[in-house]
């Protein structure tokens, strides 16, 4: 381990430089040997940021920027763990206490393909800790330990690294951010493609001031100052800055910049990088990885497309959100050519969409929507002999004719008894979209039959764009499998009603490794991708109903960890009835007010949770499934983070707690599942109650997990009649009363206390709307 001295004057200089339009020179890096002795450093305030640029020298290992350092056994840190042999890394917030390292929060990311420098920032403000990577705020946690001033530096526990001299400063000063806007830092092109124009988020540092505080005016001017609670620089008015762009190999790629965009023109096949650098501060830079595939257009093969593709060649009146489908003679495989599927507008040949098999992303929502959901995804799905290709959201327009081409090598298999060599323009895979828009407030969705829309997101896009916020809308979804991530924002009174519960399946793979974080929408200037790991993200919406359908996140837990099927990220009201939600970890996350009626929620780890006010589950099933990574683990049903001590939290009435096999077939061992565990935060409350519920033998006799050496103390530490961990009238699955004498940490309610906890839906939701109340009905 190695620390560098950095005095107060140097920190102030760094702060001034961040605000001044002057070119800075990056500090020379120094080598950190694994396990080297610690060197003394100056103290920094308890509230500060510590930042350094780091890169691995052995391809793997951990490195942390540390603060509040008391000695080798006590400090907090933010850093990167490069996992050997996986091509992945973990961005981490950690605490060393008494010589024991605890990972407070981890987010998986793809590691850069080379040992490039990355900028790590640890932000400490009171009990809040946050980690930034290359200027992007990754995550934050609450450190329950009292803040203390201490030393700061960089530590590499188990492998050598290079790192710049760490600098400190005011945590209210947020870092500059330079990155592609609402996109990953990875671009795929093919030789012969037209130049690709990508918007860049180039936003200078800004000072964050809590709402209501006095607003000072720094040298940079008022555009550097903002107030409020959001942390997105674009939303807060940070000032754009000019930047330059340079290709590492100009023989492969021509690079230009114009009007806040970077233009990439492929010249030859190969891999290269593009460095974006601020003209104001050379320390602010980013690297974009670019892969250029060779030109590989399809020949003109003799096989016929009629009967093998949908839409049929020459089809008319096609819904404008239609996926493309191909049916092979036998199950095909995705190729590794780097080619693409392209859709051109026929009347002028304009390219309207490019779809690649790997590394794609999309902006869910409609064109012109101020905030959209940016996500990484897999747009090409294989189902037996069938290939389903999803164009990017809202690319096709009504009343237009389109031509589809597929490069050779994108798909490998046989079609009509011949090797599939792609689809050439002259083969005539054309179709015309429906010219007229649907009318009324009921829209049908069907993946293959007569309908207004082919995808659920297509119907949501139209609803958000063309129906007034308060007007009730019904999306009638026919039986089928809809492989898509979903997004709804700014529209109330929307009902998604399936034809049958098991027949309508909205199913995709999404997780914390693919799209880190719970998720939020982004404006047009926001850097990176923050669309989150849920299948369905709902924001700023009230009275959303999910009725008679299934939403499934197909992530296997060892491959992605947290993976919501649903995230209701709104202070409004959600209804789920006769529905099913499947995942393994964090299946359902709710804020606001939610009512679940005769609904199945399946998972293993914290599969019901959220910063909510009141969530009521009636006559529902909570199914703990076998963990695909740890077959001996029964997991935890809930982690409540109810936002106020007087809120109702999570209440389960007349519901069944069952168990069953997980994705890999393993069931849950008896006595290994806990009803809940606490987040350990003192600013949210563990309000959970089970009343007249039946529980299977998988539930641990102790019931509640913690406090112990692995689990924190709940809040409140001692449950009362109206708050904390509680239950009443618990029976086994056959209806016999359960012996609750072995329960730990929770409270067994009396009959009167149980009646007070649940006096009907109207009483439970009386707090909605500042006392206006809510009384949902089946």
TrEMBL record:
Domain of life: Bacteria
GO molecular function, one term: pectinesterase activity
Pectinesterase catalytic domain residues: 444-705
Cross-referenced Pfam families: Pectinesterase
Gene3D superfamilies in the cross-refs: Exo-inulinase, domain 1, Single-stranded right-handed beta-helix, Pectin lyase-like
GO CC annotation, single: cell outer membrane
Swiss-Prot/TrEMBL GO biological process terms: cell wall modification
Keyword Oxidoreductase found: no
Protein's UniProt keywords contain Cell membrane: no
InterPro entries: Pectin_lyas_fold, Pectin_lyase_fold/virulence, Pectinesterase_cat
Keyword terms, alphabetized: Aspartyl esterase, Hydrolase, Signal
Signal peptide annotation: 1-24
Family the entry assigns: Belongs to the pectinesterase family.
Protein name: Pectin methylesterase-like acyl-CoA thioesterase
